[in-house]
Design brief:
single chain; alpha+beta; Pnp Oxidase, Chain A; seven-stranded antiparallel beta sheet; 3 helices; 7 strands; about 20% helix; globular; binds flavin mononucleotide
Length: about 130
């Protein structure tokens, strides 16, 4: 696992919508917008499953997951990759579920996707683009 640095965390915190990518075990890619995405600690991202269908099915058969976050002001962009675990009980699930439910009871908050970050890449356009930074 790797830990995001302060620059990365600042951009993550400003991001409203994340593009979350998964793949089936046969390698069929899938990418979706996700808003309920939080940095639980420097190495861990929480994503609330409200309406996931293919994403959830993919993660059950292939835990690899990726996303990027981009800052419109500075144009900095980072891509993170990791491994996900699906939780439907426990302290983390209940904590995030209550935050989501507090916003609206209409959110089903079915399960918590816990992403452990394993790799960070630059995706800022330019000569550093694509470079593995962590
Ligand atoms: C802006 C936006 C934010 C969304 N945020 C979430 C989210 O945080 N959690 C979730 O489960 N679905 C969220 N959705 C809905 C999923 O993206 C949508 O249900 C998608 O079809 C799931 O696709 P899948 O079958 O590939 O998993 C969001 C949709 C939009 C447009």
């Amino acid at each position: 696992m790797v830990a995001l640095n302060e620059d990365m965390k600042a951009i993550f915190g400003k991001t409203k919508i994340f593009a979350v990518a998964t793949a089936s075990k046969d390698g069929v890619p899938n990418v979706v917008p996700m808003a309920w995405v939080r940095l639980a600690d420097d190495e861990t991202v929480w994503i609330m499953d409200n309406f996931m269908v293919k994403s959830l099915a993919n993660l059950k058969e292939n835990p690899r997951i990726a996303m990027y976050f981009w800052d419109q002001d500075t144009k900095r962009c980072f891509q993170i990759k990791g491994s996900a675990e699906i939780q439907t009980s426990g302290e983390a699930f209940e904590t995030f579920r209550s935050q989501v439910k507090a916003k609206s009871e209409a959110y089903p908050a079915k399960s918590l996707v816990v992403m452990k970050i394993t790799d960070v890449f630059e995706c800022t356009p330019g000569k550093e683009a694509g470079r593995k930074v962590l």
